[in-house]
Amino acid sequence: MTISLKNNKLIRAWSGIGPDAAADDRMKTAILACNRTGRAEKELQTMKKQNRKKVFIPLAACMALLIAVGVFFGAGGPGAKYTATLENGDKITYTKMAASSQSLDFGYKFGVATRDLTGEELQALSPQLTAGFGTFRTDTGELVRLEGSAGEAKIVMTLHGLCVTDTVVDEFPVKNEVGGVEVLSGYCRANNGGKPVAVFTAQFQSGGVIVYAEQGAPFAEAKTACEGLSQTVAAFIAGGEPAFSAVTL
Fold first, then answer.
1. What does the DSSP assignment read for the chain?
2. Using one digit for the tens of pLDDT, what is the confidence trace for 36-77?
3. Which residues of 82-121 are buried (b: 16+ CB within 10 A; e: fewer)?
4. What is d(CA 139, CA 142) in angstroms, rounded to the nearest whole number?
């Protein structure tokens, strides 16, 4: 049977079928975030395979010295502002930033090799690191990048001037100051199995090294993720510049 839409009311009704603006924005955000989450999951699985020898190091005493964290939540849940106040009075605030579906190619202009790092090498870079593997220049043996973890947080360290992550971040929405160091921060909404999650990120420079930290959790547990990442960032800053020159291929 063939139905002809000659009636103007039917035509307008048919043309009007579709999501409203708010629903359309939610779907677009979910698609972009899902793309990013997929890359993050793949990277995590790769890291788990590469880090066969995991070294678990207790968080340094400076964690207890620096951090007694209180967290303020704005409206609560997705869209809220999260502020962690450190023991010394410094604050790290996270506001929402757009998730990106664009990716970057690290594009090293020199040969590289990777390997797991030993416990001693991790300690040389930061006592907070619990696992990690390094990327080295094959011509000089120089460490140029570390990907690892500190507790629940993902950590990336790279020499200044090199690509930090493979995800495009147009601009971090907040600039903070922790121990005299500028910390860029924000969070984005991602989709994990149909459930919204908050992914908190922070980045700062220590000497000639850029340090990027990321920690995510369902919005019901966003307080814990915000606290955890803020503690980690404060501890890394307190530890000073990572000794990249002490780790070679």
1. ------SHHHHHHHHT-S--HHHHHHHHHHHHHHHHHHHHHHHHHHHHHH--S----PPPHHHHHH---EEEESS-STT--EEEEPTTS-EEEE-B------B-----SS-EEEEEPPHHHHHHH-TT--EEEEEEETTT-BEEEEEEEETTEEEEEEETTS---SB-----SEEEEETTEEEEEEEEEEEETTEEEEEEEEEEEETTEEEEEEEEEEGGGHHHHHHHHHHHHHHHHHT-S--GGG-B-
2. 444 444 444 444 444 433 333 333 333 333 333 334 443 344
3. bbbbbeeebbbbbbbbebbeeeeeeeeeeeeeeebbeeeb
4. 8
For 16-29, the pLDDT digits (tens) are: 444 555 545 554 45
Q: Which pair of structure tokens corresponds to residue 197?
A: 């999650």
Q: pTM, whole model, 2 decimals?
A: 0.67
Alpha-carbon span 99 to 189, nearest angstrom: 7
- Residue 6's Cβ-count burial label (10 Å; 0-12, 13-18, 19+) is exposed
